[in-house]
């Protein structure tokens, strides 16, 4: 997972040269002019953008290098936007790969040669990620651009890009070191993946005119054209893809059955989306929606937001990593880095707009080596050298004591980018930012009762959810026959949440003693947290509610000196408003939120046992102030993100997976007007922003910021799919 950095030197012209490939990153003559000629003009971007009618345009690049191509493209798009403020094309996606990322100082030095790009280069330098393999989604809002920087081998990465059946990419910057310098990249496998990801009309530009490139791209469906090269290069290649070309490998373009995510038509600025929930999952989804110009209404069941697990005054912020780059660890690592970027933006936005501060301190987190078993596990993680030290690193007992500002006789692991935040204040700041878009409306005291799909579809009489199997027939080729669901009708009880009761979806009116409101939306996102447990729409998912109580310990000696978050079997934070968060209990299948003295004793005992070599906990005085909430998890402890169906009614469509048939032989899911973002467990601070981005990107048919294996690991369909694969038909 930790990538190797590029080794470079700068030649007499000041151009960076890759030692491994013995080749320059860009032309000695003029890097900007080369990019403009080969890639911007080579893909006819100025003309195509003027004629474009979709809200997004997607460029893919092989070889990020110094970032010069990205910076030039972002500047060109910024100029296009300034000249065409009302154009339907509103946002640029730039997806790129890099096996050996440059150290940040080398990247900065390389682009210093181009003062015309200073604003763009400074923005990139601020967000430039650490050397961690996988996708780093970076937002450049002032440039209406999103960069997905995929670190790793292009041949491993491109097959992991999730693509709509019609294709994902609009233009290719086919870069990278010359074929004779880097033959491992320029292969039939690369060209086949380019074809898999391209749409009819997708273009490419490349600096090389090598025969292997010309023949390879022609052999997968591109029509090739030679143009005049840049500088001393006589020729370069451009081309256009056609899905109907006889050379297209259609098998590669088949969707992965139930794991295929682009089953709906795209949401757009005319769409109306209802989000239900009051915590981080709900508000991050709202922010992701309104940033795309989508009209959004947030419904929640109380007077205020953050009434559930997001209501704890303080929350520790850090990823849960293991000694192997497992799927779970990779989800945690990338979620954490994306969340840190998102929270930095939200905090700065609140300050800039004069809004209320978000109480926080990115003071780092120390995972203490508090017993022999934990020490062995931590030593294994350190020895594996899987993660960048900028993410997590071993520290000895002296370093632990110095960082914590407290004498602690333990070694540990230090997560320098972590710390703590106030979840309720964070929720408020995110909503305030979303409200400034003018696209968000808040509806308090609306308790979700039920929903049903309307306009030409049926619903499941048992669950009240849109079932898919009853809504439409699934053809063998994965297409959906019958009327597609277009709208969703949602029923809410109005008033105090504890008095609201579930209604009967099968009637046109919903019976209740309380006043009710029925609303119609184009899409519904249920981010109910623990409230999903009693919702019939979730009965076909295995949900695991876990009660947790967190103590609010008055600050006192010696913990008033604490300067970092301490983690063991529990956690302790530095003080906020003269109190420290100390938690947490884990009580399965308990939805009660009363404060219990026996759980206070459990929390104190957990800390006393973990810190047995100190007298810190024994000396603590506690006045009993605490808060309990219910977190919702899943059987495999991963978030659940995607389309919501009655999966029990869909199982029969996937029996072929039990006899060894590939996923591509199975049908895709029917269209659904309902999605969910749930089961964030005790890691909601870490995972909520990226999971919301995944969901909303999918609903807008945009590029997704996770690889296919990670997307599958959080998909709502995974339990049904795994069961089908395990069965014997």
Give me some keywords for this one.
729 residues, nine-stranded mixed β-sheet, alpha/beta, eight-stranded mixed β-sheet, 17 helices
Task: Break the fold down into its secondary structure elements and pairings.
Blueprint: E1 8-10, E2 16-18, E3 23-24, H1 31-40, H2 45-51, E4 56-62, H3 68-83, E5 91-98, H4 104-111, H5 118-127, E6 134-140, E7 145-151, H6 154-157, E8 169-174, H7 188-197, E9 198-206, H8 211-218, E10 222-228, E11 235-241, E12 272-276, H9 280-290, E13 295-299, E14 315-317, H10 327-352, E15 360-361, E16 365-368, H11 372-384, E17 393-395, H12 397-404, E18 412-415, E19 419-421, H13 423-435, E20 440-443, E21 446-454, E22 473-474, E23 480-481, E24 487-494, E25 516-521, E26 523-526, E27 544-554, E28 565-567, E29 571-572, E30 579-583, E31 587-588, H14 597-610, E32 626-633, E33 640-643, E34 674-678, H15 684-699, H16 708-714, H17 718-726
Parallel strand pairs: 4-5, 4-8, 5-7, 8-9, 12-13, 12-26, 13-20, 16-28, 26-34
Antiparallel strand pairs: 1-2, 2-3, 6-7, 9-11, 10-11, 14-19, 15-19, 16-18, 17-18, 21-24, 22-23, 24-25, 27-30, 27-31, 27-32, 28-29, 29-30, 33-34
């Amino acid at each position: 997972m930790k990538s190797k950095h590029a080794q470079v030197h700068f030649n007499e012209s000041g151009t960076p040269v890759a030692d491994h490939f013995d080749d320059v990153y860009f032309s000695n003559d003029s890097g900007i002019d080369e990019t403009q000629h080969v890639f911007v003009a080579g893909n006819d971007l100025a003309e195509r953008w003027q004629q474009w009618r979709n809200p997004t345009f997607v460029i893919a690049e092989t070889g990020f290098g110094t970032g010069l191509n990205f910076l030039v493209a972002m500047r060109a798009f910024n100029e296009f936007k300034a000249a065409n403020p009302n154009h339907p094309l509103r946002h640029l996606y730039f997806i790129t790969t890099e096996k050996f990322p440059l150290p940040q100082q080398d990247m900065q030095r390389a682009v210093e040669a181009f003062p015309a790009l200073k604003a763009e280069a400074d923005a990139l330098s601020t967000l430039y990620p650490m050397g961690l393999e996988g996708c780093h989604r970076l937002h450049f809002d002032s440039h209406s651009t999103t960069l997905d920087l995929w670190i790793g081998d292009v041949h491993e990465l491109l097959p992991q890009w999730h693509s709509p059946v019609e294709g994902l990419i609009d233009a290719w910057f086919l870069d990278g070191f010359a074929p004779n310098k880097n033959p491992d990249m320029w292969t039939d496998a690369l060209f086949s993946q380019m074809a898999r990801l391209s749409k009819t009309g997708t273009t490419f530009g490349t600096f090389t005119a090598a025969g292997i490139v010309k023949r390879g791209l022609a052999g997968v469906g591109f029509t090739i054209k030679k143009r005049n090269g840049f500088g001393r290069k006589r020729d370069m290649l451009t081309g256009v893809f056609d899905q109907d070309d006889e050379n297209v490998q259609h098998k590669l373009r088949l969707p992965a059955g139930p794991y295929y995510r682009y089953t709906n038509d795209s949401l757009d600025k005319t769409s109306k989306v209802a989000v239900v929930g009051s915590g981080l999952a709900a508000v991050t989804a709202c922010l992701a929606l309104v940033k795309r110009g989508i009209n959004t209404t947030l419904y929640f069941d109380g007077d205020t937001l953050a009434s559930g697990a997001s209501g704890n005054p303080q929350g520790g912020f850090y990823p849960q990593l293991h000694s192997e780059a497992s799927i779970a660890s990779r989800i945690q690592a990338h979620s954490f880095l994306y969340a840190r970027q998102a929270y930095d933006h939200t905090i700065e936005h609140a300050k800039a707009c004069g809004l209320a501060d978000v109480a926080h301190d990115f003071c780092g987190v120390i995972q203490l080596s508090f017993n022999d078993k934990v020490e062995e596990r931590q030593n294994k993680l350190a020895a594996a050298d899987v993660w960048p030290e900028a993410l997590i690193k071993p520290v000895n007992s002296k370093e632990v004591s110095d960082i914590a500002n407290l004498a602690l006789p333990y070694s540990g692991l230090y997560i320098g980018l972590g710390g703590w935040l106030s979840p309720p204040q964070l929720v408020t700041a995110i909503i305030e930012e979303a409200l400034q878009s003018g696209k968000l409306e808040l509806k308090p005291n609306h308790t979700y009762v039920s929903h049903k799909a309307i306009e030409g579809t049926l619903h499941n009489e048992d669950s009240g959810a849109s079932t898919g199997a009853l809504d439409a027939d699934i053809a063998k080729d994965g297409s959906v026959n019958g009327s597609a669901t277009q709208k969703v009708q949602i029923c809410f009880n109005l008033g105090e949440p504890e008095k609201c009761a579930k209604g009967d979806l099968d009637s046109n009116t919903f019976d209740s003693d309380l006043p009710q409101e029925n609303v119609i939306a184009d899409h519904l996102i249920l981010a109910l947290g623990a409230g999903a447990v009693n919702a019939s729409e979730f009965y076909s998912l295995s949900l695991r509610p876990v009660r947790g109580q967190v103590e609010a310990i008055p600050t006192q000696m010696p913990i008033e000196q604490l300067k970092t978050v301490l983690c063991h079997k529990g956690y302790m934070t530095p003080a906020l408003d003269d109190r420290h968060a100390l938690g947490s209990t884990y009580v399965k299948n308990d939805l009660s939120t009363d404060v219990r003295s026996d759980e206070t004793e459990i929390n104190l005992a957990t800390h006393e046992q973990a810190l047995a070599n100190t007298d810190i906990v024994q000396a603590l005085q506690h006045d009993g102030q605490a808060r309990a909430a219910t977190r919702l998890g899943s059987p495999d402890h991963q978030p659940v993100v995607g389309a919501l169906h009655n999966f029990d009614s869909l199982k029969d469509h996937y029996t072929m997976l039990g006899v060894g048939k590939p996923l591509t032989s199975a049908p895709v899911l029917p269209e659904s007007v309902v999605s969910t973002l749930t089961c964030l467990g005790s890691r909601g601070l870490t995972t909520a922003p990226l999971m919301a981005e995944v969901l909303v990107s999918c609903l807008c048919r945009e590029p997704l910021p996770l690889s296919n294996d990670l997307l599958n690991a959080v998909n709502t369909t995974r339990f049904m799919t795994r069961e089908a694969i395990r069965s014997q038909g």
